[in-house]
């Protein structure tokens, strides 16, 4: 069901062979995550808004790459993060460790293991004084998020063509209600159906330049 593949920037990803979907862009796993979620998500948020603690929610935890990059960015910039994520079908920890992300990111295997064992959603595991994380093995449609409880949302589900139910207007309304004001939602996709669902949910939506191999992506604002 799972196959490891090297992407064009030299970093690895996992391919779900049943769905024929990779967990990250084959044009570059690290470059995609850094561009979409760190650059146009976290960095954008911190450049616009001042928060003592940033509450992040990720739809689609996968390999944990987005969370690890968020941790690194937070440590480098003195940020306090409360990180929540859901992943209905978690990857085996041994498989994740075999990706050698610790080598590419310069983090410890212990940290990666800790992230993937933080399965106490919504109760967080304290990685250190400035970073809390909770990962739930849940379907996004089962998640109960309190209104205004999230500042920044990474939406990293498999593509709309494979998981259309996760990109529906109902899900986007759930995201909108969960976000604070101001709130930011970001994804790699730029599909028209997704953009229209976001607008109907109440978001202000903008197309912005995408990562390598993708001309555009979407960022949505609740302001």
From TrEMBL:
Chain ranges of the MnmC-like methyltransferase domain: 109-222
Keyword Transferase included in the entry's annotation: yes
UniProt entry keywords in alphabetical sequence: Methyltransferase, Transferase
Pfam families (alphabetical): Methyltransf_30 (PF05430)
InterPro entries: MnmC-like_methylTransf, SAM-dependent_MTases_sf, tRNA_MNMC2
Gene3D superfamilies referenced in this protein's UniProt entry, alphabetically: Vaccinia Virus protein VP39 (3.40.50.150)
GO biological process: methylation
Single Gene Ontology MF annotation: oxidoreductase activity, acting on the CH-NH group of donors
Domain of life: Bacteria
PANTHER family: MNMC-LIKE METHYLTRANSFERASE DOMAIN-CONTAINING PROTEIN, SLL0983 PROTEIN
Protein name: tRNA U34 5-methylaminomethyl-2-thiouridine-forming methyltransferase MnmC
């Amino acid at each position: 069901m799972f196959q490891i593949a090297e992407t064009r920037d030299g970093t690895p990803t996992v391919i779900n062979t049943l769905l024929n979907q990779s967990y990250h862009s084959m044009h570059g796993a690290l470059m995609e995550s850094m561009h979409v979620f760190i650059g146009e998500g976290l960095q954008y948020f911190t450049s616009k808004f001042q928060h003592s603690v940033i509450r992040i929610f990720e739809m689609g935890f996968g390999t944990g790459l987005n969370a690890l990059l968020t941790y690194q960015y937070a440590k480098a910039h003195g940020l306090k993060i409360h990180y929540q994520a859901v992943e209905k079908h978690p990857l085996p920890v041994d498989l994740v460790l075999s990706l050698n992300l610790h080598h590419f990111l310069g983090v410890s295997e212990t940290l990666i293991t800790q992230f993937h064992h933080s399965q106490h959603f919504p109760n967080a595991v304290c990685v250190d004084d400035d970073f809390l994380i909770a990962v739930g093995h849940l379907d996004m449609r089962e998640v109960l998020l309190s209104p205004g409880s999230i500042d920044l949302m990474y939406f990293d589900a498999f593509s709309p063509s494979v998981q259309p139910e996760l990109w529906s207007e109902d899900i986007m309304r759930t995201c909108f209600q969960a976000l604070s004001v101001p709130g930011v939602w970001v994804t790699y996709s730029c599909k028209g159906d997704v953009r229209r669902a976001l607008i109907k949910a109440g978001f202000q939506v903008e197309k912005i330049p995408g990562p390598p191999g993708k001309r555009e992506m979407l960022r949505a604002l609740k302001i």
